[in-house]
Amino acid sequence: MKVLVTGGAGFIGTHTTRRLLTEGHEVTVLDNFSPQIHGQDGSLPLDLAPHVELIRGDVRDAEIVRKAVRGKNVVIHLAAETGTGQSMYEVVRYQDVNIGGTAVLLQALSDDPHREVSKVVVASSRAIYGEGKYKTAGGRVVYPNPRTVEAMKLGQFEPVDPTTGETVSLLPTTEDSLLHPTSFYGLTKQVQEQMVLLWGCTLSFSAVALRYQNVYGPGQSLRNPYTGILAIFSNQARKNEPIYIFEDGQESRDFVYIDDVVEATIRCLSDDLQGTKSLNVGSGKGTTVQEVVTSICDFFGATSPISTTGAFRQGDIRHSLADLSLVKQEIGYEPKVSFGEGLSKFLQWAASQDAPESNYQESLNQMRDKGLFHTHS
User: Fold this and answer.
1) Which CATH number is 255's domain given?
2) Is 97 within a domain?
3) I need a labelling partner for 178 at 20 to 30 A (CA). Which of 87, 128, 191, 322 fits?
4) What is the DSSP string of 206-226?
5) Cβ-Cβ contacts under 8 Å for 362 (sequence gap 6 or more)
6) 90: domain range?
7) DSSP secondary structure string, 262-328?
8) Is the CB of residue 314 less than 8 Å from the CB of residue 184?
9) Does the model's pTM come out above 0.85?
10) How many structural domains does the chain have?
């Protein structure tokens, strides 16, 4: 097939492109090489550059996007701004890229008189669920509201029943769960997903929204402070710098290794998958931030002083855990890489890279200046 990968020079994009090439597809990459992710001199990896058509441009540029979709059979739409915290004060930018860029893509498909695109796979996010799915002691399913600043300043970090205020227990979040994002990033991904699925029905192409959990692995940006605690903590541990853990360290994430994400994405290209669908892609297991920090410091033999500060950012969720029943049923996806194995591969790769200058503290300062980063009272 002839496949367009928007954001194809990014972390997920490059891994997906390699797999597409291995399977004999013709790949066009559209990417604007955002300096926040790629630095000032962004380029495709040397192993990919000779084998793909590269269109250096922005997904918001209608003329470039019309050129990119022409003659393609499939579009994998990965181009997006992806920082949860940053989205809370870069509102116009996130709306413009994530929603506006997707609108430009759909307009191009709508206007193409010879449209050959039969399927669009869009990168959605677990962020659309907000706090996700929980149950009460009596077994009633609830969807907690965003945690309040007042509660978290008192060290009350766990979500509660929005009706009674009682303690609740985490459940794996299913695709039919309530969508109520707690960050502007999550809101843009919800709208982006719904746009693609709606347009799939309208223009009669198949559309699949993959709700990626916390994707990690070799090749992810080590310089971008908005897109991954593994990169942040590994940079600090390698330099034996102090590591400050937010909240109480027991917040957890469903970390999914990049190879599993690519496998799920490629499986969606099969002719067996038709219509419009939303599917979770994760590991189905939760890992706490405290466990992450301990594992990273052990790997590097770091002497970094570790502090659990009680500080928190608005827009962050407490836990995430994907229910994988539907994605297994629809495309046979099952994660293969455990967090321990995947983390080791990521850290081995990170150790082989030059440690970038960190602007992590600057990102926190920006959130503090906007009233979005708080310390424990």
Assistant:
1) 3.40.50.720
2) yes
3) 87
4) EEEEEEE-EEE-TTS-SS-TT
5) 225
6) 2-133+172-311+319-374
7) HHHHHHTTSTT--SEEEEEES-S--EEHHHHHHHHHHHHT----EEE---EETT--S---B--HHHH
8) no
9) yes
10) 1
Give me the amino acid identity at 354: D
Name the active-site residue from 94, 129, 143, 185: 185
Structure tokens that stand for 297 in this block: 């410091």
Q: List the pLDDT tens digit at each of the 377 positions of the chain.
A: 999 999 999 999 999 999 999 999 999 999 999 888 777 678 898 899 999 999 999 999 999 999 999 999 999 999 999 988 899 999 999 999 999 999 999 999 999 988 899 999 999 999 999 999 999 999 999 999 999 999 999 999 999 999 999 999 999 999 999 999 999 999 999 999 999 999 999 999 999 999 999 999 999 988 877 768 999 999 999 999 999 999 999 999 999 999 999 999 999 999 999 999 999 999 999 999 999 999 999 999 999 999 999 999 988 999 999 999 999 999 999 999 999 999 999 999 999 998 777 677 788 888 889 898 998 75
Question: What's the token pair of residue 233?
Answer: 């903590």
